[in-house]
């Protein structure tokens, strides 16, 4: 059987280095053989027929077309009894139609040709409406009288009808596929419209109480506070910073945003603060009230239950804001939004937020064992294929402690945040990075973590890291698995681009997108 060739200039299929799957002859083949053949084509960049996604094999692309766009190319080949040329023409046809659909959405008008005067549906009601009624008068700026226009229209539609009749058969065939593409275009338009428009206060400040209830109840139970308090790297960094810089806290008014059990408020009170106000919306604040009394600090510390965005503080301004707001991969939970809100609302001129400096870093990971365990696992589960599960497993970032010996690059800082100056827009960003590879092996994942420093305006700085080479913390690390490992050489720079943004549907969770080695992968963190 002749192998079709995708090279547009080669019409006799003679090129040696260029093959497509032998789709015309597959009716009796078993599917496995077909996919296996295609897997040999790994490491090419294939653009999806219907979206911008790049994949690294024909097999993955065809599966994606079926799973994500509901179009089975092998079925189409069978249904239309396509030979090699037919297949090539169909692929190029779909690509060109999808391109023009994208152009239309971008403002192009590829329907200038009079052929489009011929109705596609007989008596299409959509063609019998009054445009002026639909869009208002401004679209009807035309030079000819209605009568003239009508004659023009009739003549043109007659000519068009003749031309179109000749290609009716082709049209009918295209119709079915077009229908699917139309649905697709609708999808594109609808999806383009779903971003929440958020005001200056930001999506967290605007969450309704019921929308945010799950978040605050997760802090209501003692266990999460036990975990945080027992994280010595975390809690001792706050304690050391506050106790080592008593001069900074002496006689100051301090706001503790999200006080939890009140631990930071009590550190500040012990360090000589004149007044400490702790605010928390979670039920844990009732425990904090007892804790403060147990330690005879109720004259210094005032606790308020409520969202910082909604409560009335007993003071207009504070000198210092302390808060432990950091989430997985730093920004998960989006609690920094509330700290920025508090700063802009309550911090006095010359006041400070602690901690203040934060870095988010990435590094490359080579852990074939782990990769096997989490990805290849699904190829054979008790003798069954569960390969489709990979599509669910890969896009979820994993919070776990990484073995430092699996690091195969130097780290690279992708974002620096200074809590004294950061704006909400800094918390969603795109950054180019380059990972200096230190080992020739397969890169199986990217790891993310953050470093924190208590820095500005104090004599004794304190720094801690949640990186894989440091004492582990309850934040662990955040691991982004690559479905297909990337071969890397020691000394090489592995370039990439990362985008971190809030999930519009749930602004407390994050979406992290990587462009890396021709792959584009979006991970959610929840
Ligand atoms: C990570 S915990 C830290 C608790 C305590 N400061 C500590 O260091 O142990 C964050 C706390 O902030 C509270 N919180 C988060 N956002 C808040 C907001 N907008 N208003 C009030 N409390 C908030 C949560 O309920 C939670 O108890
Ligand atoms: C953040 O990264 C910068 C540049 O690499 C470095 O100078 C700074 O010390 C880092 N800060 C923290 C808190 O690790």
Automatic annotation (TrEMBL):
<dbReference type="InterPro" id="IPR025799">
    <property type="entry name" value="Arg_MeTrfase"/>
</dbReference>
<keyword id="KW-0949">S-adenosyl-L-methionine</keyword>
<dbReference type="GO" id="GO:0032259">
    <property type="term" value="P:methylation"/>
</dbReference>
<dbReference type="Pfam" id="PF22528">
    <property type="entry name" value="PRMT_C"/>
</dbReference>
<protein>
    <recommendedName>
        <fullName>Protein arginine N-methyltransferase 3</fullName>
        <ecNumber>2.1.1.319</ecNumber>
    </recommendedName>
</protein>
<dbReference type="InterPro" id="IPR036236">
    <property type="entry name" value="Znf_C2H2_sf"/>
</dbReference>
<dbReference type="InterPro" id="IPR055135">
    <property type="entry name" value="PRMT_dom"/>
</dbReference>
<keyword id="KW-0539">Nucleus</keyword>
<dbReference type="Pfam" id="PF06325">
    <property type="entry name" value="PrmA"/>
</dbReference>
<dbReference type="GO" id="GO:0008270">
    <property type="term" value="F:zinc ion binding"/>
</dbReference>
<dbReference type="GO" id="GO:0035242">
    <property type="term" value="F:protein-arginine omega-N asymmetric methyltransferase activity"/>
</dbReference>
<dbReference type="GO" id="GO:0005634">
    <property type="term" value="C:nucleus"/>
</dbReference>
<feature type="domain" description="Protein arginine N-methyltransferase">
    <location>
        <begin position="357"/>
        <end position="516"/>
    </location>
</feature>
<dbReference type="GO" id="GO:0005829">
    <property type="term" value="C:cytosol"/>
</dbReference>
<keyword id="KW-0808">Transferase</keyword>
<feature type="domain" description="Protein arginine N-methyltransferase 3-like C2H2 zinc finger">
    <location>
        <begin position="76"/>
        <end position="119"/>
    </location>
</feature>
<dbReference type="InterPro" id="IPR049482">
    <property type="entry name" value="ANM3-like_C2H2_Zf"/>
</dbReference>
<keyword id="KW-0862">Zinc</keyword>
<keyword id="KW-0963">Cytoplasm</keyword>
<dbReference type="GO" id="GO:0042054">
    <property type="term" value="F:histone methyltransferase activity"/>
</dbReference>
<keyword id="KW-0007">Acetylation</keyword>
<dbReference type="Pfam" id="PF21137">
    <property type="entry name" value="ANM3_C2H2_Zf"/>
</dbReference>
<dbReference type="InterPro" id="IPR029063">
    <property type="entry name" value="SAM-dependent_MTases_sf"/>
</dbReference>
<keyword id="KW-0863">Zinc-finger</keyword>
<keyword id="KW-0479">Metal-binding</keyword>
<keyword id="KW-0489">Methyltransferase</keyword>
<keyword id="KW-0597">Phosphoprotein</keyword>
């Amino acid at each position: 059987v002749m192998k079709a060739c995708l090279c547009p200039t080669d019409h006799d299929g003679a090129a040696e280095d260029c093959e497509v799957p032998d789709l015309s002859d597959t009716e009796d083949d078993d599917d496995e053989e077909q996919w296996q053949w295609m897997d040999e084509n790994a490491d090419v960049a294939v653009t999806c027929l219907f979206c911008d996604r790049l994949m690294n094999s024909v097999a993955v692309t065809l599966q994606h077309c079926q799973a994500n766009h509901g179009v089975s190319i092998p079925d189409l080949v069978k249904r239309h009894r396509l030979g090699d040329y037919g297949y090539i023409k169909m692929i190029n046809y779909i690509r060109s139609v999808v391109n023009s659909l994208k152009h239309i959405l971008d403002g192009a008008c590829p329907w200038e040709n009079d052929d489009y005067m011929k109705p596609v549906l007989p008596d299409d009601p959509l063609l019998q409406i009054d445009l002026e009624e639909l869009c208002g008068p401004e679209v009807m700026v035309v030079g000819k009288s209605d009568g003239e226009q009508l004659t023009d229209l009739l003549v043109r539609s007659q000519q068009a009808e003749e031309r179109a009749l000749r290609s009716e058969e082709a049209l009918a065939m295209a119709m079915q596929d077009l229908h699917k593409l139309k649905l697709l275009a609708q999808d594109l338009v609808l999806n383009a419209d779903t971003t929440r428009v958020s005001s200056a206060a930001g999506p967290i400040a605007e969450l309704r109480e019921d929308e945010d209830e799950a978040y605050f109840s997760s802090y209501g139970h003692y266990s999460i506070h036990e975990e945080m308090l027992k994280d010595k790297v975390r809690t001792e960094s706050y304690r050391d910073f506050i106790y080592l810089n008593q001069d900074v806290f002496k006689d100051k008014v301090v706001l503790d945003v999200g006080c939890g059990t009140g631990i930071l408020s009590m550190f500040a009170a012990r360090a000589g603060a004149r007044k400490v106000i702790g605010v928390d919306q979670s039920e844990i604040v009732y425990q904090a009230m007892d804790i403060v009394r147990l330690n005879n600090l109720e004259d210094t510390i005032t606790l308020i239950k409520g969202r910082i965005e909604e409560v009335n503080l007993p003071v207009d301004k504070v000198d210092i804001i302390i808060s432990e707001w950091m989430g997985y991969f730093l920004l998960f939970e989006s609690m920094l939004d509330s700290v920025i809100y508090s700063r802009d609302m309550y911090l006095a001129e010359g006041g400070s937020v602690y901690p203040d400096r934060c870095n988010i870093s990435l590094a490359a990971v080579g852990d074939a064992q782990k990769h096997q365990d989490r990805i290849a696992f699904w190829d054979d589960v008790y003798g069954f294929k569960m390969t489709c599960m990979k599509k669910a497993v890969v896009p979820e970032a994993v919070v776990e402690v990484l073995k430092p010996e699996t690091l195969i690059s130097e780290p690279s800082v992708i974002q620096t945040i200074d809590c004294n100056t950061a704006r909400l827009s800094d918390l969603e960003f795109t950054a180019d990075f380059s990972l200096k590879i230190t080992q020739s092996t397969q890169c199986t994942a990217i790891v993310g973590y953050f470093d924190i420093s208590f820095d500005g305006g104090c004599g004794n700085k304190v720094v801690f890291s949640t990186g894989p080479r440091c004492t582990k913390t309850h934040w662990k690390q955040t691991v982004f698995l690559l479905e297909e490992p990337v071969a890397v050489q020691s000394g090489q720079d592995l370039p990439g681009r990362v985008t971190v943004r809030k999930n519009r549907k749930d602004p407390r969770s994050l979406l992290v997108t990587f462009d890396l080695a021709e792959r584009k992968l979006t991970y959610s963190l929840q």
